[in-house]
UniProtKB/TrEMBL annotation:
Keywords associated with the record: Oxidoreductase
Residues making up the signal peptide according to the UniProt record: none
CDD domains: PGDH (cd05288)
Originating species: Caulobacter ginsengisoli
Presence of the UniProt keyword Ribonucleoprotein in the record: no
Record domain Enoyl reductase (ER): where: 17-329
Name the UniProt record assigns to this protein: NADPH-dependent curcumin reductase CurA
Length: 334
């Protein structure tokens, strides 16, 4: 079994030697267990959080453990009456490895929908889509005509979150890095405007594109970008705090809001959320997401990097923006 083991907690960016690519024998199955050959591994900004020992929403990955990560795979052998060989399953947070041994009860089947590729279940119809849907619909709650700003808007979660707000009748402005990503937002996803934070003054662009202020901030970035958006919020605005990727490589405490008093004066709601807590309600999101995907109203992209051996370098792409859509590793053939 080929595996990535966490050897050291990264200081700043993930560096060579923090993770080690190794090989271990696969033990025989016990009663109730299933052997899954992983096909796709999800690479996520939160991988960097799990590598650290800061306070977080799951236990940190321990030194010497297989790196945590979500996978979809195919059942190769089964001693569980729930699954038989050849079935495609979601193996949960099975880890950065070629094979997973899991209790049959801990797996979930992946539906086969004609015309919908397996990669969709690792993105728009997986945790990514659920994150966008619950963050927007449960917390942001955009009303027709309101102004919604999405940061990391051309990324996996942000691109879906922004499209959901558009489908609900809001005006949507995206913040993304580089002209190509910004063009994709306005020309193909129908965003009302896009701000290239790498080449533009974000505050001035927000003033131009959000003349009536901001009602909903779907926040993926944190730091300076978050402050620019929150300082333009309207009374009773909502901040759906999904992520703070600009801070994940930081050592030590990170700055928060410049103007904390604005929460009181403008009666803002700022709510952080983690998608794991919403999984029991996943059906509510699928009921809207699946028809939108099948009907072509919701567009999405996957960026597939070949080979598990490339996971430790590929994960950096999330921090440089050098990827186009949900970042996945193809661990083995479908
Ligand atoms: P993305 O596909 O959006 O990739 C990350 C993107 O973040 C990059 O493409 C880059 O976009 C942008 N970025 C990286 N560093 C910076 C920076 N310093 N300043 C501005 N932008 C930056 O990844 P995901 O969609 O998987 O994740 C997006 C966010 O959602 C993350 O914050 C993540 O932690 C969060 N998340 C939260 C979940 C939850 O349950 N709360 C679940 C899943 C994700 P660009 O090229 O435009 O610069």
């Amino acid at each position: 079994n080929r595996q990535w083991i966490l050897r050291k907690r990264p200081q700043g960016e993930i560096a060579p030697g923090d993770l080690e690519f190794t090989e271990a024998p696969i033990r025989p199955l016990e009663d109730g267990e299933v052997l899954v050959r992983n096909i796709y591994l999800s690479l996520d900004p939160t991988n960097r959080i799990w590598m650290s020992d800061q306070d977080q929403y799951l236990p940190p990955v321990e030194i010497g453990e297989v790196m945590r990560g979500g996978t979809i795979g195919v059942v190769e052998a089964s001693r569980s009456d729930r699954y038989k060989g050849g079935e495609i399953v979601n193996a949960g947070l099975s880890g950065w490895q070629s094979y997973t041994i899991a209790q049959g009860a801990s797996l979930s089947p992946v539906p086969v929908i004609p015309g919908v590729p397996l990669t969709a279940f690792m993105s728009v119809l997986g945790a990514t889509g659920l994150t966008a849907w619950f963050g927007m619909m449960d917390i942001g709650r955009p009303q027709p005509g309101e102004t919604v700003v999405v940061s990391a808007a051309a990324g996996a979660v942000g691109s879906i979150a922004g499209q959901i707000a558009k489908l609900k009748g809001a005006r949507v402005i995206g913040i993304a890095g580089g002209p190509d990503k910004c063009r994709w937002l306005t020309d193909e996803l129908g965003f009302d405007g896009a701000i290239d934070y790498k080449n533009e003054d974000v505050g001035a662009a927000l003033d131009r594109l959000c003349p009536n202020g901001v009602d909903v901030d779907f926040e993926n970035v944190g730091g300076k970008i978050m402050n620019q958006v929150v300082s333009r919020m309207n009374n009773f605005g909502r901040v759906s705090l999904c992520g703070m990727i600009s801070t994940y490589n930081a050592e030590g405490p990170v700055p928060g809001l410049d103007d904390f008093a604005a929460i009181l004066m403008k009666r803002l709601t700022i709510k952080g959320f983690i998608i794991i807590d919403y999984l029991p309600r996943a059906g509510e999101a699928f009921a809207e997401l699946a028809p939108w995907v099948m009907g072509g109203q919701l567009k999405w992209k996957a960026h597939v990097v070949e080979g598990l051996e490339n996971a430790a370098t590929a994960v950096q792409r999330l921090f440089t923006g050098d990827h186009d859509g949900k970042l996945l590793i193809r661990v083995s053939a479908e």
